[in-house]
Amino acid sequence: MTSAKLPEQCETMIEVRAGVDQVDRELVALLVRRFGYMDAAARIKPDREAVRDEVRKAEVLDNVARAAAAAGLEPDRLRAVWNELVEQSIAYEFDRWDRERA
Protein backbone atom coordinates (compact mmCIF):
# COMPACT_ATOMS: atom_id res chain seq x y z
CA MET A 1 0.00 0.00 0.00
CA THR A 2 1.34 3.42 -0.92
CA SER A 3 1.28 6.39 1.37
CA ALA A 4 -1.44 8.95 0.89
CA LYS A 5 -0.49 12.40 -0.29
CA LEU A 6 0.00 15.14 2.24
CA PRO A 7 -3.03 17.45 2.55
CA GLU A 8 -1.33 20.30 0.70
CA GLN A 9 -0.54 17.94 -2.20
CA CYS A 10 -4.13 16.74 -2.70
CA GLU A 11 -5.87 17.82 -5.89
CA THR A 12 -8.92 15.52 -5.86
CA MET A 13 -11.43 14.30 -3.32
CA ILE A 14 -10.20 10.75 -3.95
CA GLU A 15 -6.77 11.85 -2.70
CA VAL A 16 -8.30 13.67 0.28
CA ARG A 17 -10.36 10.61 1.25
CA ALA A 18 -7.36 8.31 0.87
CA GLY A 19 -5.44 10.58 3.24
CA VAL A 20 -8.27 10.67 5.77
CA ASP A 21 -8.58 6.89 5.62
CA GLN A 22 -4.84 6.49 6.21
CA VAL A 23 -4.91 8.87 9.16
CA ASP A 24 -7.91 6.99 10.60
CA ARG A 25 -5.98 3.70 10.41
CA GLU A 26 -3.03 5.35 12.15
CA LEU A 27 -5.31 6.80 14.84
CA VAL A 28 -6.85 3.38 15.50
CA ALA A 29 -3.38 1.91 15.97
CA LEU A 30 -2.57 4.68 18.45
CA LEU A 31 -5.87 4.14 20.27
CA VAL A 32 -5.08 0.44 20.59
CA ARG A 33 -1.85 1.46 22.31
CA ARG A 34 -3.64 4.05 24.49
CA PHE A 35 -6.24 1.51 25.59
CA GLY A 36 -3.38 -0.87 26.39
CA TYR A 37 -2.37 1.67 29.01
CA MET A 38 -5.93 1.52 30.36
CA ASP A 39 -5.46 -2.26 30.68
CA ALA A 40 -2.28 -1.61 32.67
CA ALA A 41 -4.02 1.00 34.84
CA ALA A 42 -6.86 -1.42 35.60
CA ARG A 43 -4.30 -4.03 36.61
CA ILE A 44 -2.31 -1.61 38.79
CA LYS A 45 -4.93 0.52 40.54
CA PRO A 46 -5.69 -0.86 44.00
CA ASP A 47 -9.39 -0.11 44.15
CA ARG A 48 -12.30 0.70 41.85
CA GLU A 49 -12.63 4.26 43.19
CA ALA A 50 -9.16 5.02 41.82
CA VAL A 51 -10.31 4.40 38.25
CA ARG A 52 -12.00 7.80 37.90
CA ASP A 53 -9.44 10.51 38.65
CA GLU A 54 -10.89 13.95 37.90
CA VAL A 55 -7.60 15.72 38.65
CA ARG A 56 -5.79 13.57 36.06
CA LYS A 57 -8.64 14.03 33.57
CA ALA A 58 -8.36 17.81 33.87
CA GLU A 59 -4.59 17.57 33.42
CA VAL A 60 -4.99 15.48 30.23
CA LEU A 61 -7.55 17.92 28.80
CA ASP A 62 -5.36 20.92 29.64
CA ASN A 63 -2.34 19.24 28.01
CA VAL A 64 -4.34 18.59 24.85
CA ALA A 65 -5.69 22.15 24.75
CA ARG A 66 -2.17 23.55 25.03
CA ALA A 67 -0.85 21.20 22.34
CA ALA A 68 -3.77 22.07 20.07
CA ALA A 69 -3.19 25.80 20.50
CA ALA A 70 0.53 25.39 19.81
CA ALA A 71 -0.33 23.49 16.61
CA GLY A 72 -2.74 26.20 15.47
CA LEU A 73 -5.93 24.25 16.19
CA GLU A 74 -8.91 25.30 18.27
CA PRO A 75 -8.21 24.19 21.85
CA ASP A 76 -11.89 23.91 22.77
CA ARG A 77 -12.63 21.66 19.78
CA LEU A 78 -9.80 19.27 20.67
CA ARG A 79 -10.71 19.44 24.36
CA ALA A 80 -14.23 18.25 23.44
CA VAL A 81 -12.86 15.37 21.36
CA TRP A 82 -10.48 14.36 24.15
CA ASN A 83 -13.17 14.66 26.80
CA GLU A 84 -15.10 11.93 24.97
CA LEU A 85 -11.93 9.87 24.52
CA VAL A 86 -11.13 10.13 28.23
CA GLU A 87 -14.69 9.24 29.24
CA GLN A 88 -14.61 6.19 26.96
CA SER A 89 -11.20 5.28 28.37
CA ILE A 90 -12.56 5.49 31.92
CA ALA A 91 -15.55 3.31 31.01
CA TYR A 92 -13.21 0.80 29.40
CA GLU A 93 -10.94 0.83 32.44
CA PHE A 94 -13.90 0.21 34.77
CA ASP A 95 -14.83 -2.83 32.65
CA ARG A 96 -11.26 -4.11 32.70
CA TRP A 97 -10.91 -3.47 36.44
CA ASP A 98 -14.08 -5.45 37.11
CA ARG A 99 -12.98 -8.32 34.84
CA GLU A 100 -9.54 -8.48 36.47
CA ARG A 101 -11.17 -9.07 39.84
CA ALA A 102 -14.20 -11.17 38.87
From TrEMBL:
GO MF annotation: an example: carbon-oxygen lyase activity
Domain Chorismate mutase, residue spans: 7-97
Q: Name the SMART domains for this protein.
A: CM_2
Read off the PROSITE patterns from this record. Answer: CHORISMATE_MUT_2
Tell me which Gene Ontology terms the entry assigns under biological process.
chorismate metabolic process; salicylic acid biosynthetic process
Residues where substrate binds: R17, R34, K45, E93
What is the protein named? chorismate mutase
Q: Which organism is it from?
A: Sphingopyxis macrogoltabida
